[in-house]
User: Fold this.
Amino acid sequence: MSKRSRLSNPYKRPDRFTVKAKDEGFSARSVFKLEEIERRFRVLPRGGRVLDLGCAPGSWSEFVARKGGGNTRLVGIDIQKVDSFPGTFLQRSISDIGPAELQALLGGPADLVLSDMAPFTTGNRLTDHVRQLALARLAFDCALQILKPGGNFVVKLFDGEEVQDFVLGVNRSFAKARRVRPQATRENSVEFFLVCLDFKG
Ligand SMILES: C[S@@+](CC[C@H](N)C(=O)[O-])C[C@H]1O[C@@H](n2cnc3c(N)ncnc32)[C@H](O)[C@@H]1O
Assistant:
């Protein structure tokens, strides 16, 4: 993408979060979405096992690794390559990996499942919403199978017609669930995160 088209695309335009991410050595500005979620909800275990779905280019995992201080067992999955990953990285689609393989990589049930997975957007709001929801469902199915009781789950969603049923379904599996729209989410984005705490098992 040329510099001019990057600047005209609101999703690519550098802002204060882009600058801060660079200054602090993170690979993407989206790190500040997870940072806000952590500040407000304390989702990260101190040590423990964390699965990061849709982890490329790696900023959420970098944040998890820094916070965990070397005691976290971190596994990241993405269809895109990650150059340097602070844990075990698999370049695969989440739809091609089973829970047994994930648990083996993590060394046991997960304390936290993160999903910032997003489809390549088309600009068509309905198509993007449906594709995003399909990824969120895969992430939720995965979380149900590998989270330990008491574990947490964070999933990205695009607001739209079908999202409410999904949210209600997820809510039933956790003691508490909150919709969060972090400050680092772009103004014109329909993105939000569902932060789910204390898996009932
Ligand atoms: C918004 S980015 C994630 C950014 C990441 N959290 C970070 O902070 O660096 C969304 C990612 O979801 C990935 N993704 C989309 N579909 C996927 C799938 N089926 N399986 C795994 N990853 C997928 C994309 O390749 C993309 O890298």
Q: What stands out?
A: The CA atoms of residues 121 and 128 lie 6 Å apart. The first strand starts at residue 48 and ends at 53.
